[in-house]
Amino acid sequence: MTALSHRKGHALRLNQVSAGTELIFHIILGLFAACCILPFIFVVIISFSAESSIKTIGYSFVPAQWSLEAYRQVFKLGDQLWLSYFNSFFITIVGTVVSVAICVLYAYPLFRKDFKLRGFFTFFSFFTMIFGGGLIPTYIVCKNLLGMSNNYAALIVPMLVNPFNIIIMRTFFQTSVPFDLIEAATIDGSGEYSTLTRVILPIVKPGIATVALLTALAYWNEWFLCLLYITDRHLYPLQYLLMEMQRNAEFISRNSSVMGAASAEAVRNLPNQTMRMAVVVFIVLPIACAYPFFQRYVVAGLTIGSVKG
Amino acid sequence: MKKLLALVLAAMLALSIVPAMAEDAVEITILLEGNNVTDDAPVLEKLNPYLAEKIGVTIKPVWGTWANFDDLALNAVTSGSDEYDIMFTCSWTKNEYAKYAKAGAYVRLDDPEDDLLAEYGAALKDTLPELLFEGAMTEGPDGEKGVYAVPGFKDFATMNCWDVNVTLLEKYGYTLEDVQKAGFYGWDEIFAKVKAGEEADGSVFYPFVFEGAVVERFVDNTPIVTGDSGLLLSYIMNADDVSQPGPYGNVFVNKYATDEFKAFAAQMKKYYDAGYIDPAIAIGETATDTWRNAQNTANYLISSEVSLYGYEYTTSAARGIQVAYIMTHSDPYIDNTSVQGAMMAISANSDAPEACMKFLNLLNTDPYVMTLLNYGVEGVHYNLNDQGEAEFTDARANSYTVWTNGVGNVTLLPPTKGQGADFQQRFAEFYGGAKKLPIYGFTFDASKVNKEIAAVANIKEAYALTLCTGAAADVDATLAEMLQKMDEAGMQKIVDEANAQLEAFLSGK
After folding, report:
1. Longest CA pairwise span in chain B (Å)
2. What are the structural domains of chain B?
3. Which residues does chain B have within 8 Å of residue A265's beta carbon, measured at their own beta carbons?
4. Percent of chain B with pLDDT over 70
5. Model's pTM, two decimal places?
6. Which of B36, B436, B477, B488 has the highest count of CB atoms within 10 angstroms of its CB?
């Protein structure tokens, strides 16, 4: 690389590109970043718009009138809002910790070449990625057999084992942990568990962070499990609270031809557009705050290794 | 130490007996739909002791919402769980009464061998109009027709109406009669004058606002055919007397192949091209919102509504204008769809069907029970004014909003504010005068032509809304194209099958 840049020219430092190229890259990446952030900014603006403004000029970056009404309405949800907030955090934290532990403990043996049932267990998890039982059998097993109905378990257990994450984790083990390291640890007298916890885990932290981020996101955004198994409002996570508002509106709009006047009546009782956007803001903020924390490890994972040279 | 332990154990034993003695009432779980209830404790505190004393039953409601409307019942039925004793059911959306009754999910209420209705529901049978039970007849798992759910006593007859903004109409010197006399095919002049007048200040005004997927029924007088999930069949009814056979007789036709539809689509095209119709009405995603928005902001002249008795008072008050409804047919008509719109079924897996029937009987005959469950607690969720009308409080809006029609006999409820003290009496009389369609009682069994229905319904989805809203560029060509594709997908087979079933039904009547 050094030789290459020397041959090409004069002042360019290592890894440096010409100013023109850099400008183009900046524009491309800037546009990409804008594509990601703009919808969210739009949501925030809509949540601060007056409902009358939406009725007259539609969604706009510059609403005809600003209003805090949506947030006032969200706070009117009262206990339900904070309860749902708690549920979301509880499910995400417990779910992520347990799920990541299972993932690591499952993936580690699969990476060990000296594990005899490796092939079988790889297939055992991989198989479920291709063939599922289908919604109704899954539902019956979870509800009738495992008793997951109207409890936290119903929101956590069905998502605990994720074969995709196991494969990511196994691959991460394979690429970042040299087998020599395990041999070295064994020679130094380390047992299996202490090898895993003291030698391997510190190296694969970035991998764990990646899987944890994926899992946390999945738990935070999950609402379908709640739709299936929960009827008790005290267990609603925040996501489902929003989803319920959205689905309420969709259902009534879809069936208004049959419901007739009753649908107009029902529509009047529904939260309006701006309020739904305000709830979105409530949902996105915490997880957006969690991102930079995980990102540190993800970036670190690209540069850190155990055996140098 | 041992003594203490024995004492504690004895105390625990004694404590465990006390509630057991009080709790010899049977608890039944009820699935209700379309609600927004976060706190039912104040209601149950009053309701359960009353029920326990009266019929030895207590209830545990599960408050379904609109959001999980489709899923809760489906889950309960498919998982075969005994979670619910009583379930809400209806003939629309995925909560399909006829289908689940046939699958054996519900207890037959008028079973000749164990007639729950006769034994525990005598008062209910006397209170509800006989024709409701007639409309609730459906085929069970044994192929016999029977009543599998208690139909709700609500607005059980359909009224397809033009919703007219009278305030605006009179501003331009027209009367309701002018609108009625001119009819759907003659509103050009009124629309033109009002549009021009309202747009004088440079704004945009669309006088004609309607629900595109439905408005065709208002013009061509075609009720929904129960069991026709794709909304493909048309029975053209007699608009001058809905109880008499229609112009084509008692047969089904392909809705879109009739001359009536062609004329309707051409007229819509005229209105659309003249700028009387908001283009957003022709787009599926925005159609309903646009229509409701225009109505709620009183930003329309003529609109469409499947109305109910006394609805003009509600809408006039809510919109701040004078609203009037013009029915597009002679009388409100009774069809299975409206009768089966909200019902209560007893789950086949329930341990206590007798207790369920006792409760349903009381719910539909005892004003105290119905009002408590529906409106909430007096003084907390609503107050009665001097005229005996209910005025709802914020507590009801925030924590106890029940879908009134989804519970039972609404005529037991106190009238709401503005309806007048004798509202329920007038309501019952009004619907008592409704007329049955000649095909009343018929339910289309689509199981033999499911494949064709799916294919044709897809084609309909692609074309119908643009045709019904006048947004198609060339009506004749689009209509011809749609009809040809429908033919290829087996439309005729569906119509023939439906007609064969109808013939068998009418001859057996």
Report:
1. 98
2. 21-151+338-423 (3.40.190.10), 159-331 (3.40.190)
3. 314
4. 94
5. 0.80
6. B36
